[in-house]
Design brief:
The protein is built from seven helices and 24 strands. It has helices spanning about 5-15, 75-85, 135-145, 200-215, 265, 280-290, 340-350; strands at about 1-5, 30-40, 40-45, 50-60, 65, 70-75, 90, 100-105, 105-110, 130-135, 160-175, 180-200, 220-225, 230-240, 245-255, 275-280, 300-305, 310-315, 320-325, 330, 335-340, 355-360, 365-370, 375-380. Strand 7 (about 90) and strand 8 (about 100-105) form a beta hairpin.
């Protein structure tokens, strides 16, 4: 294959897929991007066999010098293209060779290549359920919950996000066993009840693509989430104003098998203590006081001892101690709780305005939500006193 293409357009296209390439290199070719060149179109694909990203877009007349296909090392190919100074890039990968020559201006780069026919496919999704949701709602669902997913856990299902589809409501749930985030959105149509667990990497890439989509479309733009027993499939059409190109991007991911915890049973009820406070004021207090926190000492103590204030303190015997007073409206008994400061701050960072914290005992789950907002609920397990 031989291609002459605008550098900015090529960088944009590579950026759409490069993060799906397998950095663990279980198979060398999975660290590559597959390029398929045909008259009028270029298709790029990257995959780690759990997640596959593909982008296809039209190229100008004459850009396809010789149709064909190849695969190139993903990160190296991307970095070379970003470092070039000329506006046009030529990619020449002759058949029956293991070398690809990239030229631009006075630069010439040679990369090893592998045959495109050896690049494995994740498989074709045949969605039995297609959920329609606005781009804005889907982005918001992910933003309000993704931070609570586990990054590593023997309970593999905790490293993903639950999508609970029930009639005309979609609920996203994430938990790492220490905290739980729940977000709801109403749908315009009704669907048969279904639960799927989407891998964390796929969730992160879907959010990234949605944010790219938001740059050129309105929040009300409809996105279709296709599910079957094994796969999630999403197709997006992205416009790039700088290059005046339209990229058709598709994401396919293997769903995680397993039984996700029943999040409804975790949400505490009949709490005997509650406190309201301002989110910004609380974040400022946590930011200042966290200078004494460390991995070995991540806790922050909240002492609700009056109706109008909460003492927030950190104590590190080796470094020192700090205390600040946060104005609150407290109902109930005197209570002290210790939270992982990073967990508490992560919850507050996705909320606004007046926050309500409902509590029972120092060792019981604590419910946190934004006053007047019934779409988002958060649970944090206190640390032991």
């Amino acid at each position: 294959m031989k291609l002459s293409i605008n550098r900015e357009l090529l960088i944009k296209a590579i950026n759409m897929v490069v993060k799906a390439a397998d950095k663990r290199h279980r198979f060398v070719i999975l660290g590559n991007i597959k390029l398929v060149l045909e008259e009028g179109y270029l298709t790029l694909t990257a995959s780690d066999l759990e997640l596959e990203l593909t982008t296809r877009f039209a190229i100008p007349s004459g850009a396809c010098i010789l149709a064909g296909s190849t695969t190139l090392p993903a990160e190296m190919f991307f970095n070379i293209c970003k470092s070039l100074s000329a506006d046009t890039v030529t990619i020449d990968a002759p058949e029956n060779t293991s070398r690809c020559v990239i030229t631009s201006g006075k630069g010439r780069y040679t990369l090893s290549s592998l045959p495109a026919q050896d690049f494995p496919s994740i498989g074709a999704a045949l969605p039995s359920t297609v959920v329609k949701i606005s781009q804005g709602d889907l982005t918001s669902l992910i933003h309000h919950t993704r931070f609570a997913m586990a990054t590593q856990d023997v309970r593999h299902y905790l490293t993903g996000m639950l999508f609970d589809i029930n009639d005309s409501k979609l609920t996203a749930v994430a938990t790492d066993g220490h905290r739980l985030a729940v977000a709801h959105r109403l749908l315009s149509d009704s669907y048969q009840a279904n639960q799927v667990i989407i891998p964390g990497k796929a969730v992160a890439e879907l959010e990234r693509l949605l944010l790219e989509l938001a740059k050129t479309t309105e929040d009300a733009t409809i996105v279709e989430l296709g599910f079957d027993a094994e796969f999630l499939h999403v197709g997006l059409t992205l416009s790039d104003e700088e290059t005046d190109a339209v990229l058709e991007v598709s994401l396919s991911a293997h769903l995680i098998e397993g039984k996700f915890p029943d999040y409804r049973r975790v949400l505490p009820t009949n709490n005997i203590n509650a406190a309201n406070f301002n989110k910004d004021e609380a974040m400022d207090v946590l930011r200042r006081i966290s200078v004494l926190n460390s991995k070995a000492n991540p806790g922050v103590l909240l002492n609700f001892d009056t109706t109008d204030q909460c003492k927030v303190s950190v104590s590190d015997k080796g470094e020192g101690e700090a205390e600040e007073v946060l104005g609150v409206q407290h109902e109930g008994d005197v209570i002290e709780l210790i939270f992982n400061e990073a967990y508490l701050r992560a919850v507050l960072s996705v909320l606004e305005g007046e926050i309500r914290m409902e509590m029972n005992q120092p060792s019981s789950p604590v419910l946190i939500y934004q006053v007047g907002d019934d779409l988002h609920q958060y649970i944090i397990m206190p640390m032991r006193l």
